[in-house]
Automatic annotation (TrEMBL):
Source lineage: Bacteria, Bacillati, Bacillota, Bacilli, Bacillales
UniProt EC number: 2.3.1.222
Function in brief: Involved in 1,2-propanediol (1,2-PD) degradation by catalyzing the conversion of propanoyl-CoA to propanoyl-phosphate.
Cofactor dependence: Zn(2+)
Annotated protein name in UniProt: Phosphate propanoyltransferase
Residue ranges the record marks as coiled coil: none
Enzyme class: transferase
Species this chain originates from: Paenibacillus lactis
Length: 190
């Protein structure tokens, strides 16, 4: 049985706490939805911010909503070199001991002491998909991306929940290396 999954390429983006949303956009501010994402209830917001590192900054970094319990900036390794932040590869939400960043919005600025990561490649599985294929939460998978520059990615983390929809997330560096784009498919091979 072929274990085919859709691919989503994740460009740099930021998740913000409600407190930081209000500090950057004004008291009581609520994010507005530009478009839904592959995961139920998640969306790309209309709002963007600037993020400022020691060597440079990125303007117009898309905010993903809804508000989160912790502010987290997800960038590629190439991005980390460009702004001078030594971001470690981490699973989303695992930000303890990571570098911080300054975030600038239209109504203010916030500096966080931690929260900058290169997101570890992963596949979101709905519980039923994972059970069908014998995959458990936190399993490390090997996945083949096809195409002209096809490659095999190792250490792809399985994330299993009733709240997830089947989707593989890789960053722009990984996608560029493979010539992959959002909407392509990949195959779990181990």
């Amino acid at each position: 049985m072929s274990k085919t999954v859709p691919v989503g390429v994740s460009a740099r983006h930021i998740h913000l706490t409600q407190e930081h949303i209000e500090a950057l956009f004004g008291p009581g501010y609520q994010l507005t939805e530009m478009k839904p994402l592959s995961q139920p209830g998640q969306f790309a917001a209309n709002e963007t911010v600037a993020v400022i590192g020691t060597k440079g900054q990125f303007d117009k970094v898309r905010i993903l909503g809804p508000a989160r319990p912790a502010t987290q900036l997800e960038i590629s390794r190439t991005d980390s070199f460009a702004i001078g932040v030594k971001a470690p590869v981490r699973e989303s939400g695992n930000i303890a001991g990571t570098p911080g960043i300054t975030i600038k919005g239209p109504a203010g600025e916030v500096t966080v002491d931690e929260g900058v990561i290169v997101a570890a490649r992963h596949i979101h599985f709905h519980t039923s998909d994972a059970e069908k294929w014998g995959i458990k939460d936190k399993d490390m998978l090997k996945v083949r991306l096809g195409g002209e520059r096809g490659l095999v990615l190792e250490n792809v983390i399985a994330r299993v929940s009733d709240n997830y929809a089947l989707d593989m997330h890789i960053d722009t560096d990984e996608a560029n290396a493979a010539g992959a784009k959002t909407g392509d498919t990949a195959e779990i091979i181990d």
